[in-house]
Amino acid sequence: MKNWIARLFGGGEGAAPEEHAPAAGAPAAHPAGPDPSKPEPDRDHDFWRWLTAGAAAAAPTAHALPHAQLVLGELDRLVDAPLDAAGLIPRVPEVIPQLLRSLRDESASSVDLARQVARDPALVAELIREANSPFYRSSSQVRTIDAALLVLGRNGLRMLLARAAFRPLIGAQGGRHSRQAAPRIWRHTEQCALAASLLAPALRADPFEAYLAGLMDDLGLIVALRLFDGMLEADALPQDPALVAALFARSRTLAARIALQWELPPPIAAAILGARGQGPSAGQPLAAALGRAERLVLLRLLLDAGMLDAEDPAVAGLDAASARVFERLAPADRIS
């Protein structure tokens, strides 16, 4: 396992992968149509502008740049020591891994699952609310744990549990910057998880692993925002494209490290690292699913925020399968 991790991260166990632009003329991993797993030149910068709306400077301020370098340095350190990030992003509650293990056990009965869910009142409320959501279109009002478990099934319950575990980690805690970004980053996280799970079957990836990869994808970015909270008191966050690119590269590596530290399946960390079409895991189906999900979600968010036109080639040129997922991501209420 240790050697596999070392190869994945491109060197020693603590080494972070080098980030390189795709070589000119390199063959696309998905030759049919535009390759959605490869980064577009300003993709991260567009996401950062959307995420930091209201806390962004038109140009990087002189006092913000040194703080940004400090944040990058601290992210490098945390990549080597991911346990030190626990104060910025706590581990998921233990009841969730216990339930996920039970769900992997085919011999576990619905009575056992109901008993474990009943230990957490907030989880019970989430379960009942999900079973009554339009997504499941239940013919009658669901009022009991047993009835809700029947409606969701094991896979639906697994996704609900994972989402319930991750939401508090991305919640509005921390300082000014992370609190302001929390609703937007959770929307991005939730949609990446959903889109990746929907895209996974056609790419022969596991839908639940794709869902977990989507939930993990932004954790390094949350750490970065909380680091800015401690180092930068000004309203404005840096907007320099080179700094933003470096920030996202380190945040992605840290998210993969945290996934391994939490003992999630290793393919999840590999997918996070390979989602942009680079590195040893770039060709894996799970990485392709996450990469396509990231692109579709960004297009959706930018379109909903008025930062992208519906006739833009990136939207108008979506293939039929991607367009269906894109429509599934349309929100009931939009964040402008």
List the helices and strands and how they pair.
Layout: H1 2-8, H2 43-51, H3 64-80, H4 95-104, H5 110-117, H6 121-131, H7 145-166, H8 176-199, H9 207-216, H10 219-231, H11 241-261, H12 266-274, H13 285-304, H14 313-316, H15 320-328
Report on this model:
- With 336 residues, the protein is mostly helical.
- It has helices spanning 2-8, 43-51, 64-80, 95-104, 110-117, 121-131, 145-166, 176-199, 207-216, 219-231, 241-261, 266-274, 285-304, 313-316, 320-328.
- Helix 9 packs across helix 13 and helix 11 (241-261) runs antiparallel to helix 12 (266-274).
Relative helix content: 55-70%
Shape summary: globular
| Biggest sheet features | none
The poorly predicted ranges are: 1-39
Number of E strands: 0
Amino-to-carboxy terminus distance: 44 Å
Q: Please report the number of helical segments.
A: 15
Strand content: under 5%
**Cα gyration radius (Å):** 20 Å
The succession of helices and strands, N to C, reads HHHHHHHHHHHHHHH
Class by SSE composition: mainly alpha
Mean residue pLDDT: 78
In short:
The chain has 336 residues and is mainly α.
